[in-house]
Amino acid sequence: MGYRQRRVGAANNGEAENATAPAVVEATDLSKRYGRGKGVKAALDGVSLTVAQGEFLAVLGPSGCGKSTLLGVLGCLDQSFEGQLALFGRNTRQMSDADQARLRGTRIGFVFQAFHLLGHLTALANILAPTLFISNRSGGAQHRWAERAEHLLSELGLAGRGGDLPEQMSGGERQRLAIARALLMEPELLLCDEPTGNLDAVTGQQIVDIFRRLHQDRELTIIAVTHEQPLAAAADRIVELRAGKSVTGADRSSHVGVV
Ligand SMILES: Nc1ncnc2c1ncn2[C@@H]1O[C@H](COP(=O)(O)OP(=O)(O)O)[C@@H](O)[C@H]1O
Ligand SMILES: [Mg+2]
Prior knowledge:
Low-confidence stretches: 1-18, 252-259
Bound molecules: adenosine-5'-diphosphate, magnesium ion
Largest sheet: 6 strands, mixed
Distance between the termini: 34 Å
């Protein structure tokens, strides 16, 4: 596997690792509205959710129920919401924009339905794209990232494909490349928005198997939103979302010892 997943509590701030690590995500009464006046639309309507470290959660629901909106809020991509959100034990409202960007860039990985690869860059350069936003770009750091990118390519079954452009790759290969990119900075939390939505059933299952392996081998916390059963079936727990409200499985606070 090449490296061990960094654990909550043993992050850069030097805190000791401990058995009662905070939940990775604690969301309380999240609401999000789009539009104004009569056109206002509640995309999220009071969602509470606790996700423990190392958990693989699927958020299942039909198109338009608020899944992407929820992921955007959980990933600090969208700050215009009501309610409270703590990530890795920190209240995001008390974090500066720079702190949130750092957290998003180093501790959270994103995987999207449409891959969002950069078409003019090779596979290897796509994996390395997250390093463009990092201030420490010393030669040593660049070298380590390049080595890691090569390692991820082979780990995801793309050895020897680093020079290919995304257009030379199949859908499944593109998504594996996107997963490699998401893993480059060794995130603790992977947020996946319909990651199998553009893939046929067989290819989609390969992606699901990769998530399961990442979850088991690296203790990666995964939140995947989907309307597809095979992905949901691979998760430890399913939360169902209907019209912006979670209808089952949302609260697991008793399991992780936090409110
Ligand atoms: N930028 C936006 N402006 C207005 N309405 C939006 C916007 N994004 C999403 N919505 C609406 O919010 C609801 C939830 O959307 P979304 O989170 O994308 O759902 P899902 O990912 O489950 O398909 C939908 O009714 C959608 O039309
Ligand atoms: Mg969506």
